[in-house]
Amino acid sequence: MIIERFEDEDALSAALATFVLESIVKNPALVLGLPTGRTPLGLYRELRERSGGNRIDWSEVRTFNLDEFAGLDPSHAGSYRSYMQAELFEHIAIPDSRIGFLNGAAQDLAEECRRYDDAIEQAGGIDLQLLGIGANGHIGFNEPASGLCAQSHVAELERATREANADRFGGDWTAVPERALSMGMATILHARAIVLIATGSEKAAAVKGLVEGMITTALPASLLQVHPRVTIMVDPGAAGLLSD
Ligand code: GLP
Q1: How much is the pLDDT for 239?
Q2: What residue ranges do the domains of the chain occupy?
Q3: Domain 2-105+124-135+188-234, what architecture?
Q4: The whole model's pTM is what?
């Protein structure tokens, strides 16, 4: 595991954007796994700004987002699909057909999860998976549990996770769906390379567990320790509990 420390969130976002854009230049058909949440907002701002005027050719890139709320139409203002449209997809020239997303409004959610895993496999697997991390150590919506799902699945959300997502639902955590669809641990760990980003002291305990703790399903991100190509990018707050 490589740990990269940055002086602040802006420096982290800029460095990750550089890495993503260089990866696309090297491999124009890059298969890119994407997170949502507050942490990647700076990354998406940098990607928008630096892709303008067709400076970066996104036409062959494929994206697969990590997760989506169950029961929400993709056009719902609280959906992760809406977040991605507003933060990135509307601003870059990527064909809609190359954007992979779990559809939270699908009639048969189990079938939708199978479709998604098949689509990732047919794309040749994910080349670069970007991840955030929940304060409780979740990645995607793989919440701490006695067992974790390998494949994409329907997840029950912890209250803390719903509270952390309340800002997309008018600040009311009870309006946040109780369930979500998420890539599973194998879906994530099969990516050829993984970069996890964490900022702020509320992530410090999860980051310490992820980097220095035992591998445990009680902290799903700790499973990243088994992957051969993982980089953790942190600001001083998130790095606050790491040993030097
Ligand atoms: C959310 C998402 C995750 C995200 C994490 C951290 O619930 N499902 O994919 O990485 O929590 O979010 P944030 O960056 O807002 O702290």
Answers
A1: 98
A2: 2-105+124-135+188-234
A3: 3-Layer(aba) Sandwich (3.40)
A4: 0.97
